[in-house]
Design goal:
single chain, alpha/beta, about 220 residues
């Protein structure tokens, strides 16, 4: 027997499966949601000490989570009768305060569910933007589902055309300007690049939070 064959020398190396863009987005989405979920369970005292500042009615803590080099901004919350929890975003709310936000009042009314969508060809950073919004709506008790704007595999296809007066859509996309605006029952979260896309998603979260907080205070 020839040397090499006996030792399996001719055996081809096993093929390495490459992840598709969709699979990468899904993996990142679950990772983002897991990190944010942990932040809800752990009090801010357990994070590394850092600076805090007031932003409107909230105290914001700038923190680095263990094992990361990314700054997070944590807002301890107590809304109505809900248990205390923490909201975590990626951007300083002061730096996105003046971002264009033109969402019609009708978008907020009658919402029972939310569909969050983005382009399947975007990088996994788009999934971070989706996770920022999705984790917040879960925190306030709104059921959210995820999909893509074009059909691929078994993932839901979601566009603004799927929006109704009870099931709203948030479409996270790249564009010529960083802003948030609405088209009927669909909210467009737009960034000139992926970093801006995440900032626009955080703008949605902060604005939505302030609306809820104001409503709770008014109804006391």
């Amino acid at each position: 027997m020839e040397e090499g064959k006996e030792m399996g020398g001719d055996k081809p190396a096993p093929a390495v499966k490459k992840e598709t863009p969709v699979e990468k987005q899904v993996i990142v989405l679950f990772a983002v949601l897991a990190i944010i979920f942990v932040s809800f369970l752990v009090s801010y005292q357990y994070f590394k000490p850092s600076n805090s500042f007031k932003y409107h009615d909230f105290t914001v803590y700038k923190q680095k989570l263990e094992g990361t080099t990314v700054d997070f901004y944590i807002l301890p919350l107590k809304i109505g009768d809900k248990a205390p929890t923490n909201l975590m975003i990626r951007n300083d709310p002061r730096e996105i305060e003046n971002m264009t936000f033109e969402v019609n009042e009708s978008f907020w009314r009658g919402m029972r569910g939310l569909l969050i969508t983005t382009d399947v060809n975007y990088t996994s950073l788009a999934t971070i933007a989706a996770g920022e919004t999705g984790s917040f709506v879960g925190l306030i008790g709104v059921e959210a589902d995820y999909g893509f704007t074009t059909e691929i595999g078994g993932y839901p296809t979601i566009t603004c055309a799927d929006a109704t007066n009870v099931t709203k859509v948030i479409d996270i996309r790249l564009g010529n300007e960083t802003k948030v605006y609405s088209e009927g029952d669909c909210m467009i979260v737009e960034g000139v690049d992926y970093d801006s896309m995440i900032k626009a998603s955080d703008k949605v979260v902060i604005t939505w939070l302030e609306r809820i907080y104001t409503a709770v205070e008014v109804n006391k």
